From TrEMBL:
InterPro entries listed in its UniProt record: 3-5_Exoribonuclease (IPR051274), ERI-1_3'hExo-like (IPR047201), Ribonucl_H (IPR013520), RNaseH-like_sf (IPR012337), RNaseH_sf (IPR036397)
GO biological process: DNA metabolic process
Name of the protein in question: Sporulation inhibitor KapD
Gene3D superfamilies cross-referenced by the UniProt entry: Ribonuclease H-like superfamily/Ribonuclease H
Originating species: Chryseobacterium indoltheticum
SUPFAM superfamilies in UniProt: Ribonuclease H-like
Length: 181
């Protein structure tokens, strides 16, 4: 039975390099899954957390650390495997039975490709809500970034940009406002 009481909201941070130039022998790889649950009845947000993932095929660049605040040392100390993170999400969030959402298609596509590559069961349902596309369809305008969309709607960004957990939380606030308008 599918559950409609809450929407799971995610934001993915991945290894990145200046000007998008991936060094030889490295790949773009998930290093953080930010996640929370949006209660559709009242807009409250619960169970906000960050799963730090140890990369296996790339290093965290200085540029990536400046952007996300995530260091190789932090991942080595606090990170878990991608497979373990997916299992934890599935169990903690009942994620196979709920709609999940994100701001744009990147989060969904990198999760799908990394699950396929690492032979890990995809931890989310087939029902993905791309908030960026939804807003564009409603406005009839070209999509803009999360921070600008929040600002345009007078929603205060809480936390740090490019922190998966904070971005997921702010996306959840935006999602509730859009769906209730």
């Amino acid at each position: 039975m599918f559950l409609y009481d809450k929407v799971i909201v995610i934001d993915i941070e991945a290894t990145c390099w200046e000007k998008g130039q991936i060094p030889e022998n490295q790949k773009r790889e998930i290093i953080e899954i930010g996640i929370c649950k949006l209660n559709m009845s009242d807009g409250s947000i619960e169970d906000k957390r960050s799963y730090l993932i140890k990369p296996t095929q790339s290093q965290v660049s200085e540029y990536c650390t400046q952007l996300t605040g995530i260091t190789s040392e932090k991942l080595e100390k606090e990170g878990i495997s991608f497979k373990e993170a997916c299992s934890n999400i599935k169990n903690r969030y009942n994620s196979l039975r709920r709609t999940y959402a994100g701001y744009g298609g990147f989060d969904k596509s990198i999760m799908e490709s990394q699950c396929k590559e690492f032979d890990v069961k995809f931890p989310f349902s087939e029902t993905y809500l791309d908030l960026k596309v939804l807003i564009s369809l409603m406005n009839g305008e070209k999509p803009i970034g999360l921070l600008k969309e929040l600002e345009a709607r007078n929603i205060k960004f809480e936390g740090s940009a490019h922190s998966g957990a904070d971005d997921a939380f702010n996306t959840a606030k935006l999602l509730y406002q859009v769906l209730k308008s």
